[in-house]
Design goal:
binds adenosine-5'-diphosphate, 17 helices
Length: about 500
């Protein structure tokens, strides 16, 4: 009897596998880190074989733990997005390392595209802002840098894929070259309105169409594993990029529902329903997911520094030993004592997009102590999230009544209370925080009939704790006014007067 769905969660620093039972509970999990490669300043690569080996190892471990392949109904995949690999189809060998989403080597080329006035064309077709982050400029770089690659690509001898596609190719023993619509929507080559690879964009980036995978819905049945690696032929069904899977795993099914993942940075996504919304606030428009022929769109905003600010307090300022201490310390003072931190360590992301901004601590007085600074740090995470959610709210015209949260920093009850106060909305923390893997499992199980439909899985979602606003209106307004003032002081810091 097949009792479990296993999600393969291919992340930026580790590969994980998590098995879920019929009720959506976690029954087994395994994780393996792999090396980060930094060949030059601003370059980040992964060895695609490390990704594959680590992913297959954890999958085997989890499969053994649940009692072998016959217990597994299907495998789903979720992954770090945009990271790009190109391989030779005949041998299955990559022609270069995978270029990771964080890699900045193509930033100059992206600036050139902006100078050529292509911002609107690209935004209209793909929903994306021109940036080195997305796959297209990385593909172009590999094809130009590796001798003979362009000719081979033109002859149809090479395959491109994001990590889902690379895993799928290997899992099926080189039989299937496909991806899902969410991953395709992050390449900057996919038209999110008519659902096709876009010829004009392919020409702009000088990429032969033959290297691209076939695009399927997120809940497609993609193929079967070859006997070779897992010792069994198991159905591979359900693929989605990590943030998209998390939006689904959080059951943000209605337009206007939003999730925020509080990790190193914050990743916010809002379901906007069946119509893509163009952002007036520099948010990205993306495919939330595609189920059969039905597409759900989303608005996305990212914050570069969130939990990383807490790490900074620990590792550089050395005023805490452990992230968990922040809650007690911040609770030891009744308010921030007028202290504000703008953690613009690498500039500011959505909705400001200011690469010249730098971090600042403002409002210090003789009475300010480390507890105030810690409180200001937690508030900074919540303020930045507030700014993105307000932008989503403005773009969509949909008021936000609740926010679902996950990620490592959501252990911090005070952080979530502050967030609820600022948003004047309910903040909901679910029992299962592994929402990314859960979302991929849901796509997988829905594809195969393991679950009968969304109504069945909806019933599994359980809250752990709910945070409701409890702050005086004038106190909230003071906080937000001062935050805005602090942001203004940080903006453009690196620019000449
Ligand atoms: P990622 O997936 O980006 O590695 P995680 O979801 O594992 O991140 O979350 C880790 C982040 O959460 C770290 O940056 C850490 O500083 C922060 N964090 C962990 N515990 C707490 C806490 N109790 N309060 C605030 N931040 C925390």
């Amino acid at each position: 009897m097949s009792q479990y769905v296993i999600s393969l969660d291919q992340g930026t620093t580790s590969s994980r596998a998590i098995a879920f039972d019929k009720r959506g509970n976690i029954v087994a999990s395994a994780q393996e880190e792999f090396p980060q490669i930094y060949p030059e300043l601003g370059w980040v690569e992964h060895n695609p074989q490390d990704i594959w080996q680590s992913q297959i190892k954890v999958t085997k471990d989890v499969m053994r733990e649940v009692g072998g392949p016959e217990k597994v109904s299907s495998l789903g995949i979720t992954n770090q997005r945009e990271t790009t690999v190109i391989w030779e189809k005949a041998s299955g060998k990559p022609i270069y390392n995978a270029i990771v989403w964080q890699d900045r080597r193509t930033a100059d080329f992206c600036d050139e595209l902006k100078q050529r006035g292509l911002e609107n064309t690209i935004r209209e077709k793909t929903g994306l802002v021109i940036d080195a982050y997305f796959s297209a400029s990385k593909i172009r770089w590999i094809l130009n840098a590796i001798p003979g690659a362009m000719e081979k690509a033109q002859k149809g001898e090479l395959g491109f894929g994001t990590m889902d596609c690379w895993l799928l190719w290997n899992l099926t023993g080189g039989k299937v070259h496909s991806t899902d619509a969410t991953n395709a929507s992050r390449t900057m080559l996919y038209n999110i309105h008519n659902h096709s690879w876009d010829d004009e964009l392919l020409e702009i980036f000088d990429i032969p169409k033959s290297i691209l995978p076939e695009v399927q819905p997120s809940n497609a049945i993609f193929g079967k594993t070859s006997q070779e690696d897992l010792g069994a032929s198991i159905t591979i069904a359900g693929i989605a990029g990590d943030q998209h899977a998390a939006l689904f795993g959080q059951m943000c099914l209605d337009p206007g529902s939003v999730k925020n993942t509080y990790g190193t940075g914050c990743f916010l996504m809002m379901n906007t329903g069946s119509k893509p919304i163009q952002s007036g606030n520099n948010l990205v428009t993306t495919i939330g997911w595609q189920i059969d022929k039905e597409t759900t769109y989303a608005l996305e905003g990212s914050i570069f520094v969130a939990g990383a600010l807490i790490q900074w307090l620990r590792d550089e300022l050395c005023i805490i030993d452990h992230a968990d201490e922040t809650e007690v310390m911040a609770n030891a003072v009744s308010d921030n004592g007028g202290v504000y931190i703008v953690p613009a360590f690498v500039g500011l992301g959505a909705p400001y997009w200011d690469q010249y901004a730098r971090g600042s601590i403002l409002g210090l007085t003789r009475g300010a102590n480390k507890n105030h600074i810690v409180r200001a740090a937690l508030e900074a995470i919540a303020f930045q999230s507030y700014d993105v959610i307000r932008a989503m709210n403005q773009d969509s015209g949909i008021p936000i009544s609740s926010l679902k949260v996950d990620g490592g920093a959501t252990k911090n009850d005070l952080l979530l209370q502050i967030q609820s106060n600022l948003l004047d909305a309910t903040v909901i923390r679910p029992q299962i925080l592994e929402t990314t893997a859960l979302g991929a499992a849901y796509f997988s199980g829905l594809a195969t009939g393991f679950w009968s439909g969304i109504d069945e899985i909806k019933a599994f979602w359980k809250e752990d704790r709910l945070f409701t606003p409890s702050i005086k209106k004038e106190d909230k307004e003071t906080l937000l006014t001062n935050w805005k003032k602090a942001v203004r002081h940080s903006q453009g810091w690196l620019k000449d007067e």
